[in-house]
Structures are given as C-alpha cells and as structure tokens.
C-alpha cells in the first residue's frame, strides 16, 4: 500500500477565512436599518423589514452572525441607544445629526421588486442586507444648495474599553439620489474630524461582496480606520452635493485581534495517537492537525482537508511491515 505525508497534505489543503477574528475577542457589529416610506403599507410588513435587518443573517468583512440591528428612523438627532458586542461588552451609539434614513430604494425592495420571495437568495444575503439601508447625509440642503452641515450624518460611539481598536465603516447610497456625471455615487467621510476621504460607490443594487476604499477618491463600499484610541470616536459622512449617501453599519474590534496570518508549515503540527499501525486495512488512529501562523498563533475553527498529494513511501501489502 502507498503511504502519504499527512503534514504536507494538511497544510496544503487548509482553507483560511480571511475575515475571522481571534476566538474570544470582542467584536461589535452594528447594522443601521430603516424602512422606506414608513407610513406606507408595504414597509409595515415584517417580510419587507427583514430585507434590511441582519437578524438571522451572517455577513460583514469580519464575518459574523452576531449583529445588532438599530432602527435609525426611531432615533432623532441628539438621541442614542446602546449595543452589545460578541463577548457581552456594551457601548453607546448616538446620532448628532442626519438628513434622514432610507433603504437603497425608497418605495420597493433593493432588487426593484415588491415581493421578497421573488429573489430569495439575494434578499437573504447578509452582505447585501448590510449595504442596503443607511443613515443618509448630504452636503447640500436642496438640489442646488446651499451647503448645510446639519444635513451631514454625524454619529458618535462611546463607552469603548479597548486600548486600541480598528473600525470598519460600511457606506451606501440611495438609488434615487445617486447623482450623475462625474459626481455619481460620490461622498465624503472623516474620522474624529481629522482629514476627509472622498469615496465613490459603484452604481447598481447593493452588492453581495465588499471592496475596500484604500485611498482618497477610491471606489468601494467600506473604509477601515486602524489603531483608534480613547473611549469614543466620531464619524461624519455625507453624499457630495445633493447625493444621498451615508453609513450603513460599522464593526469595531481590538487592534490586537487582527486576523491571523497564513498557515506556516514550520509552526503547525500533525500528530497521531499511535506511532505505528499494522497495515492490515482495518487498524485506525486519531490524527490531530494544529494550524498556526508564523508567530505561533493557533488558527482556530479553520477547515482542514486531507488528500493524497505526496508519495512518501511504498509498502508491499504482502509483508508484515508496519508504519
């Protein structure tokens, strides 16, 4: 019979989820949702509201199923609410100013339909749900101006106990006030009133995937602020001119809970409960694969598959040799 290298197989077939957070690390994940025409009958239906709420869904760049849904239509400027992280810590979300709040489409579902069951996979997708409704801000009060800072989205998150933290902010635009020409999908954001990043949202329905805005003027749907300090931070976001865009949600995690690196063969181990087995076709053993990155950090919860990829030795099954 042919024997294969288990270590080589395990390391070659390990699949890493790039958006994971270390086990036991606190992760705050908040989805800012709102019905559309909340006085209209269709948005009173729970089936419609479920299309903009993350309850029961998994999503996000730091993928999780533990989301807090905050109905921002129920919070006036100056109001606040608390939310809870994955490990039980709490923080406070406050709205200082906003224009309003809305799903991607004000009068229909995000796919343009009036029936959530007509496109079930897309309507149930957590990433598209997260990028749908939002707190809406604009630079102008009216279509032609003037500039009105009270129409900006300004939010504050407070009560954080992490020494340093990273923040992902998810950005979205309304379909009806998306803008046109060179300003289509254009908006602005800053963190703690420092600097101003211009961003562009691609046209079309909220996507099921994420693209990071990595530079001023970049195109994407989320931005990352790294190594924040202090117990609170403030975000200001708004669409350029009369464009209606803003913050669809955010995630916060400790800066030292960054994603582990790739599997490292030098630090990862494969052990078997028995050093030798009779090659009789029926003997069994337990093989334990421990995946670590180059720093020795255990990559918990990752999938490992064993497959025949490297021949190490060949044993004649008619002999009594063991291995």
Output the keywords.
323 residues, disordered N terminus, mainly beta, seven-stranded mixed beta sheet, 7% helix
Summary of the model, kept short:
The protein is mainly beta. Helix content is 7%, strand content 33%. Strands 3, 4, 7, 8, 10, 14 and 16 form a 7-stranded mixed beta sheet that branches.
How do the strands and helices of this protein lay out in sequence?
Blueprint: E1 2-4, H1 6-12, E2 14-15, E3 27-33, H2 46-49, E4 68-71, E5 80-84, E6 90-97, E7 100-102, H3 120-124, H4 126-130, E8 134-137, E9 153-158, E10 164-173, E11 186-191, E12 194-200, E13 218-219, E14 222-229, E15 232-239, E16 245-254, E17 269-272, E18 287-290, E19 303-304, E20 311-314
Parallel strand pairs: 3-4, 12-13
Antiparallel strand pairs: 1-20, 2-19, 3-16, 5-6, 6-9, 7-8, 8-16, 9-15, 10-14, 10-16, 11-12, 11-15, 17-18
Oligomer: single chain
Order of helices and strands: EHEEHEEEEHHEEEEEEEEEEEEE
**How confident is the prediction overall: mean pLDDT?**
86
The level of helicity is under 10%
Q: Strand portion, in percent?
A: 25-35%
The number of distinct helices, counting runs of at least 4 residues, comes to 4
Tell me the overall shape: globular
Largest sheet properties? 7 strands, mixed
- Report the strand count: 20
Low-pLDDT ranges: 1-18, 312-323
């Amino acid at each position: 019979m042919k024997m294969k290298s288990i270590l080589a197989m395990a390391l070659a077939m390990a699949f890493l989820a790039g958006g994971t957070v270390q086990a036991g690390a606190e992760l705050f994940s908040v989805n800012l949702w709102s019905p559309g025409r909340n006085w209209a009958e269709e948005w009173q239906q729970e089936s419609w509201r479920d299309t903009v709420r993350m309850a029961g869904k998994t999503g996000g760049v730091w993928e999780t199923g533990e989301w807090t849904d905050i109905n921002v239509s129920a919070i006036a400027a100056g109001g606040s609410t608390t939310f809870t992280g994955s490990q039980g810590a709490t923080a406070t979300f406050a709205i200082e100013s906003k224009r309003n709040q809305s799903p991607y489409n004000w009068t229909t579902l995000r796919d343009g339909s009036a029936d959530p069951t007509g496109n079930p996979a897309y309507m149930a997708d957590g990433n598209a749900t997260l990028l749908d409704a939002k707190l809406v801000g604009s630079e102008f009060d009216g279509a032609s101006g003037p500039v009105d800072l009270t129409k900006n989205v300004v939010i504050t998150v407070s009560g954080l106990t992490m020494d340093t933290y990273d923040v992902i902010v998810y950005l979205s635009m309304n379909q009806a006030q998306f803008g046109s020409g060179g300003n289509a999908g254009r908006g602005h954001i800053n963190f703690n009133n420092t600097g101003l990043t211009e961003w562009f949202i691609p046209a079309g329905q909220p996507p099921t995937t994420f693209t990071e805005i990595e530079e001023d003027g970049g195109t994407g749907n989320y931005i990352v602020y790294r190594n924040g300090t202090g117990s609170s931070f403030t975000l200001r976001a708004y669409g350029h001119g009369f464009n209606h865009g803003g913050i669809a949600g955010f995630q916060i995690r400790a800066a030292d809970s960054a994603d582990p690196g790739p599997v490292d063969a030098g630090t990862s181990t494969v052990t078997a409960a028995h050093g030798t087995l009779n090659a009789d076709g029926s003997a069994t053993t337990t093989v334990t694969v421990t995946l670590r990155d180059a720093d020795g950090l255990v990559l918990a919860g990752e999938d490992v598959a064993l497959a025949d990829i490297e021949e190490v030795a060949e044993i004649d099954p008619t002999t009594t040799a063991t291995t």
